[in-house]
Write the structure tokens for this entry.
Amino acid sequence: MSQKVRVRFAPSPTGPLHIGGVRTALFNYLFAKKHGGDFLLRIEDTDQNRYVEGAEEYIVEALNWLNIPYDEGPNKEGNCGPYRQSERKDLYKQYADALIESGNAYYAFDTSEELDARRKDHEAKGKTFIYNWHNRLKLKNSLVFSEEETQQKIANGEEYVIRFKSPEDETLFLHDIIRGGVQVDSNILDDKVLFKSDGMPTYHLANIVDDHLMKITHVIRGEEWLPSMALHILLYRAFGWNAPQFAHLPLILKPTGNGKLSKRDGDKMGFPVFPLEWKTAEGDLFSGYREDGYLPEAVLNMLAFLGWNPGTEQEIFSLDQLIEAFELERVHKAGAKFDPEKTKWFQHQYLQLVDDEKLAEDFKKFLQDKKISTAGINVTRTVSLLKERATFVSDLWDQGSFFFETPQNYDEKAAGKAFKPETPELLRKVVSILNSSALSAGADDFSTENLSEKVKGWITSENIGFGKVMMPLRLALVGEMKGPDVFDILSIVGKEESISRIEKAIDFIG
Ligand code: GLU
């Protein structure tokens, strides 16, 4: 590729960015970075009726959270700005005019009532009304009116739109990087509106003009835009511009495989479909991966596999590795089933990769929010013992709350098994070992190894049977039969608190 690769992510700010949109952004980013190119963000906000307050900020925040920053875009001016279409609106009319000039577009004066009536009329006859070569010469447009009539209508302030004049009887051979050759019969195309009566361009016109002016080399976008590809190619041809290459990404399907994953599916099925939480103006709350405790790396890795795979067994990829491995040619055509369990799996893997100090910081924040004191507890050590069983930071609490809080009761079933008439005496002996000089000489002596050696040494020498001591000891410390090694727990909880918990259990049994 001799020309510098330039791609864009071009969302319309009509609400929060769905993970399908995030995947589009990610694939654009990966492709750009793989080829040393630029990744642009362009806000397609020409449809003011659909504009949603806060949506643009949401998009930018989501890209930042996921660490896929754009090189040019709103608030990051490059040479092709502005990057919001609403700020470029004066630019588009001249391009619509140029198409009229070259005979590729025309003025149409049909009112929406008239068009509706036509549509209904066709429907009644079991047909579909398409505004194109079929019937455009029977409608109210500048192909029918004389030049003077047309100019007169415009001068009179009659409302008009500008439509593209799609060709008759032509087979278009299109190429999509993912789908290969796509053939389209031009007779099925309608004469799309390029410019609206409100003086704003439609998506199609603004999109093509901007892709051209912004020197976009590859258009990577969702499959829902595949039907627009023919029109877009025809527009490039009409302007006499080189068209970029196209790649349409597969749909993201519901976990059942039945249909497109929709905005509402997530909360219905119990997983987020948005990167960040979103509150609608009506007060509805949609959950987000960030607020649900996911790591951005895990979400990114999961998204990369929605419709792409590297062709090897490797599943865990850092962003740099993704850039290295990514190829549009390896993106599938078939819809990609969304798998919330797999997302959790990625999250679990990434949590294991977080370094203990960093994870301890996050866990401390979590504990602070819950107003749990960490005084005297080595949180980094607890994290290193618990994380294997955790997917989210909150799981560290579910798995290890006993490090910070004295158990208030004992699991009934376990207590039935572990607390026996002879247990108090055995536990008293454990207390005396914990109190013994060998374990009191210095802080280090309350180490897991030392504790284990002393307690196990006693159990073996007295021939007691491990279960008789270890089960009630665990129950006394944890309240249930779970958690890491008992000696680690003793060591972390510390002498005073350990003894107090054991004495509490002795009282309970008594
Ligand atoms: N504004 C369109 C969207 O919201 C962009 C489609 C395209 O990438 O061409 O998806």
Q: What stands out?
A: The mean pLDDT is 96. The pocket of glutamic acid is lined by residues 10-12, 44, 203, 207, 221, 225 (CB under 6 Å). Residues 88-249 form a domain with the Glutamyl-tRNA Synthetase; domain 3 fold (CATH 3.90.800.10). Residues 129 and 135 are 9 Å apart (CA to CA).
